Task: inverse folding
């Protein structure tokens, strides 16, 4: 029997980061992962492959539609989909291999197999190669992540390639003529963008009356208009009730969310992107009295401890936004707690990014949330159309704005919402500011290099506490 300080079940961004941190703190650590590669959903079928396709399709779209604006003549632009998929696979392979190297470097034992709880201090591993291992450990961290939530009227068959989920959408081998994306959330809009840029006519079918409902509404409205200009078709307040694969096409029947007449339309490919749910199958939580909530999330206290004090849970399998960086922060905090330090995650400063073009990024409170909580605030905005770097970059690069929400009395930044080029990078300035309790004036008086997109951030802060210069 192997003896450990920490055994982590799951090798995604929550699990492998926790394992590395534990190794760095000198704890004897093992990481159990059943996929056969490390990196979890994020590296294998999530964040990274989707961004690889977003980058490739963006280059294609730029070459086809925008190079000529700069005087660049390239003749007929075509896309070799299999090469694009190869490039994506290479990126994933390189990064997952890199994590295996990092585990070795930090002396973390890596077990390839399915882990389950054999007791408060025991993990049993059914090895993929056959046989099993019993691990004895002082602490266990569950980081088993999430899986696609099925949508009963639209059963996914990734192998068939007609009705796919986000994993199947990463491997479509031919550009569909038309694509229905069921679900107007982050994953649907990102994957829809990939195939739209490559030539698909994409229709987003969303039950609610707007896209990404948790997002700041001013941003959502602008975002939807922009996607529409790019060729997206939206069917909001619409419910999918039936699907039928008929040879080369899929018939999707919808009705208004509030009930009414049904309509059937045919699509080449259908992407189901209606959400994800925690994955805890086969862990044996129930044998130890570890509770899950109504959405299947493992219940933990503020230190990520379950009802069994030696067992912790982090990442997508607990409450909170299903994001890789949130899982990583929790992994580090849980390990620091185990090692006797003060592990902590500030949930008010977790950014969210949509990697479309332009990108959309947010951190902190939305205007709707502040109104709801009766918090008085100042609002500063600055459009990228007035930012010199955005204007110099390329046609279409100056769409969007930065919006800062700051407390009316203290000027402390409470929320940042950006739609624009590189918004996903720029949001880090807002996160850092919020972590350190910055006021909008603090940021406005911080020198920003010229010409940069981040000057728009500074000017939005100027607008929040006084006046911008360039607008
Ligand atoms: P996971 O990454 O799901 O990892 C859990 C791992 O545990 C899995 O590899 C699984 O095989 C393993 N496992 C499960 N049970 C067991 C067991 N019993 N024994 C052994 N191993 C087990 N997030 C972002 O922040 N940015 C993005 O841009 C982004 N893009 C995304 C795009 C797509 C298409 C998808 C699907 C997701 C995206 N996400 C993104 C979400 C992100 O992938 C998840 O939030 C993140 O992976 C969660 O990390 P985790 O470690 O909690 O779980």
Result:
């Amino acid at each position: 029997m192997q003896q450990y300080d920490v055994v982590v079940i799951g090798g995604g961004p929550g699990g492998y980061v926790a394992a590395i941190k534990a190794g760095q703190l000198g704890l004897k650590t093992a990481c159990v992962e059943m996929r056969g590669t490390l990196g979890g959903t994020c590296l294998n079928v999530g964040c990274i492959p989707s961004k690889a396709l977003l980058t490739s399709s963006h280059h294609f779209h730029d070459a086809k539609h925008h190079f000529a604006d700069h005087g660049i003549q390239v003749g007929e632009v075509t896309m070799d989909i299999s090469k694009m998929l190869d490039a994506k696979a290479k990126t994933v392979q390189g990064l997952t291999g890199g994590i295996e190297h990092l585990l070795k470097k930090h002396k973390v034992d890596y077990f390839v197999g399915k882990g389950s709880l054999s007791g408060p201090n025991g993990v049993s591993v059914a090895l993929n190669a056959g046989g099993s291992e019993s691990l004895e450990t002082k602490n266990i961290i569950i980081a088993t992540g999430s899986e696609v939530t099925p949508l009963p009227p639209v059963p996914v068959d990734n192998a068939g390639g007609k009705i796919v989920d986000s994993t199947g959408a990463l491997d479509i081998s031919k550009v569909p003529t038309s694509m229905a994306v069921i679900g107007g959330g982050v994953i649907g809009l990102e994957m829809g963008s990939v195939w739209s840029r490559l030539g698909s006519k994409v229709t987003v079918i969303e039950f609610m009356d707007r896209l990404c409902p948790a997002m700041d509404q001013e941003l959502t409205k602008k975002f939807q208009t922009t996607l529409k200009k790019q060729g997206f078709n939206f069917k909001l307040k619409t419910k999918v009730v039936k699907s039928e694969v008929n040879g080369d096409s899929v018939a999707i029947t919808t009705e208004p969310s509030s009930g009414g007449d049904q309509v059937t339309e045919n699509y080449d490919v259908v992407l189901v992107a209606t959400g994800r749910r925690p994955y805890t199958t086969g862990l044996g939580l129930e044998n130890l009295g570890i509770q899950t909530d109504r959405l299947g999330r493992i219940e933990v206290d503020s230190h990520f401890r379950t009802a069994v004090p030696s067992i912790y849970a982090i990442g997508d399998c607990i409450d909170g936004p299903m994001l890789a960086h949130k899982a990583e922060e929790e992994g580090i905090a849980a390990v620091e707690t185990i090692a006797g330090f003060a592990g902590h995650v500030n949930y008010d400063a977790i950014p969210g990014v949509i990697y479309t073009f332009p990108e959309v990024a947010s951190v902190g409170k939305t205007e709707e949330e502040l109104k709801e909580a009766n918090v008085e605030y100042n609002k500063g905005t600055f459009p990228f159309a007035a930012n010199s770097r955005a204007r110099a970059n390329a046609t279409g690069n100056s769409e969007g704005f930065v919006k800062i929400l700051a407390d009316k009395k203290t000027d402390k930044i409470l929320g940042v919402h950006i739609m624009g080029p590189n918004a996903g990078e720029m949001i880090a300035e807002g996160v850092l500011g919020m972590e350190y309790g910055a006021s909008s004036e603090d940021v406005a008086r911080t020198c920003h290099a010229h010409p940069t997109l981040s000057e728009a951030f500074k000017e939005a802060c100027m607008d929040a506490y006084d006046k911008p210069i360039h607008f």
